[in-house]
Amino acid sequence: MARVIPIASQDARETRSTCPYCGVGCGVIIRTEGSTIVDVRGDPEHPANFGRLCTKGSTLHLTAAPHVAAQSRLLHPMRRARRGAAAAAIGWDEALATLSDRLVDTVRAHGPDAVGLYISGQLLTEDYYVFNKLAKGLLGTNNVDTNSRLCMSSAVSGYKATLGADAPPTCYDDFADADLVFITGSNLAWAHPILCRRLEDAKAARPSQKWIVVDPRKTETAAMADLHLQILPGSDIALYHGLLHLMLWDGLTDAAFVRAHTSGFEALRDRVRECTPRETARATGLREEDIVTAARWWGGSAAVLSLYCMGLNQSAQGTANNGSLINLHLATGQIGRPGAGPFSLTGQPNAMGGREVGGLANLLSAHRDLGDPAHRAEVAALWGVDDVPATPGKTAIEMFEAAADGEIRLLWIACTNPAQSMPDQATVRRALERAEFVVLQEAFATTATAPFADLLLPASTWGEKSGSVTNSERRISRVRPAVRAAGEARDDWRIVVDVARRIERQLRPGRVSLFPYDDAESVWNEHRATTRGRDLDITGLSYALLERDGPQQWPFPAGATRGLARLYADGRFPTPDGRARFFDIAARPPAEPRDARFPFSLTTGRLRDQWHGMSRTGTLGRLYGDVHGPAIDLCAQDMARLNLAEGELVRVTSRRGELVLPARRGDAQASAQAFIAMHWGEESLTGRGDGVAPFAGINALTTPASCPQARQPELKHCAVRIARAGLPWRLRAMAWLPQDEALTRRERIRPLLAQFGYASCLPFGREPDERGWVGLRLDAAASEVPTADVLDALRAALALRAETVLDYRDPRSGLQRALRVRRDAAGQERLAAFWVSGADGGDPALAAWWRDTLQGGEPLAMPARRMLAPGAREGVAPGPAAPASPQLCTCFDVSVATATAALEAADGGSSQRLAQAQARLHFGTNCGSCLPRLRRLAQAAAERTLA
Asked: Of 84, 385, 430, 895, which sits with the fewest C-beta atoms within 10 Å of its C-beta?
């Protein structure tokens, strides 16, 4: 594979690289003109995606646009003279000297364990490696952990506890060979959409393939299943034990495989003896007949592939969840052959690479265990240091608890946003405030963590970096730069090496440097050397081979011609006796079950088009198209029982904190359950829920309870209560703004929203429009009218100053209305911005009318001044405005209403209707993320015709 692909345009070129989002590891081709990334498309030669990209990957060029970078990127090293002060730009020499001196001073005064490094699964393998070596080899502390602790550490410990090594034994090609696909703890259609498309292709080619989806919610993935097991939250182990009980009862296990290749089966067999269908149904909330069906499908299938992700991992029983699922594979011999095996789907783009280099507090390079003296000695010899510290490092939650207690005094955070993503935000923020020195090494200046940092170091990001990543199927891909880094940003590995060399001059004067690297490849070559003889041996790989032959799977030892696609085909496992081990544990309730005080089970998950804390995807209006803003989803029965209207603000309270959100009716949840997307932090959802406590987003609610083996927190589930918020004053505003100002104006708005009980400020629209303008939407509520200076500042930020708009204010009611209108080339008036605020919701019907008028972009149907008059809307279309139809297809900007109309107008059955409508509107023909819902709409249209 050539690094750069010449194309016809004199100033244009194309570069092969890898997507920076989820662990699928999709290949991308970046098109640049001059110094600007202008387009991105899927790489048809990459074996992970074969040219497909999801909505997030296919908009990467938009998030890298110069106007976005200028407003959201951290472009220069910056330092605060004191906490709370504005950060001032400084030079790199001063920044590096400041950090290295503070590290040395902290180590000398308080010992190396007074330092904590918290890094990220979005770093490249080379970045990860030098961070790990700096902490454990130079500073002498194992306090280096990663946000992969929040997503994949339970998968790590589950694999090691059962199979003996942290290595997914399967590959993407197994999708095509599976007879049964068992998807559990994963909304594959949204979290890993390209894999979902690949699985759909497999089923189309093999119609007999069955899917079982285990999920407390009726997700897009569950809607595609042959059998949806809608379990109670936290009852996964009870289900797996119940399935094993039935397979044993019906003689559907592989006794020969169990005898020859496993150990510990007898204890587990005795454990599940009492897990009858009746008992399993009671524990899981399922029907007995569905449990029986699932067990017989599994036991009767020639090849069973399980796919799982955060629903299993983010649990106080995460390792047990993983181990209990793997038990089913071992008991039935469903491992080590095509189409069979337990496959953990990685959450972040390089969580696997971080595990490979030992980037967790309990690991060392090449999957070595920190607790093994022989492994520590091996790494010390490889690195050329006297020893590696034996004291276990602090894992992510422990690290921030230690900082909150004053034990850790210096925090170095890289490429992650703990002030949004960590559970129990009260403790996290106390840690960030109490730590004597906080360093943030980051590409984006707008994250919730940035205001806590004493020193900010600008890092390069996607499209600017060189290195490698490893995806879910153990496949290593190259990441290549297409343009120079923005501003003064530097590669993460380079920043670490420069700091390390300065530290060496103070702590190891006169000795050969431990960091002799000139480029990313030299770092990777040292990492490669540490893998010799290990389970992930990659001594046969090189940058040159990856350049020539493309991405490769490990293991790939010296002398090999290709990597190994599947592991354990010979029935030998990397355990002391060569046998896989059954995981014997009793099923337990969730860490925080609902009760009378907190009667709702709250679960968290992803939005289709957003990524993590949204520092990148959240800059694009189109990626909010299928969701109008933050909300808590409740079933219709619970909405009626609480007497809540659609969109009404509710206060959601857990044992740790609270937040205010609009309630949204949805059919995905069972009664007494609620759902909030994981992405909402103070960057996009702001205000103070109780008017006193600092707002910290969804993770103000979540529990720090964690898995005892993996130390992964239970981010997926907690208990809450829900009540009306009691915030009668409401503001709704939208504005088109110049694209080179909109994000900056949003940052001006954010601190003002702390005055409100609820507020969100989000982009909207397809950016930019024909004038180069983009949209910004503001929604806020309060218990009383905010001060005039706050309202005036908000109006100014939205370009709604009184002198430039049509304005109406009623001093008695506090009602405010404002319109900004522009004239197009034909002299027609079009709505450019509006503001509606006041008591009792501030006239929501009027706001909805103006919203639809603004988003529709059509010329005004009446003079703008008439639109301000009381009753104006009734003169056009009587009654309250219906909500705008949500976006269905992000790629081609097709709404649910438009898609439904096109399907209704088509002929034939559901597949024929879908094909006809796609030929006209193209929806679902690019990334395919909307296909599951499109198929349901097409089926409904066909059924209505038959009726």
From this structure: 84
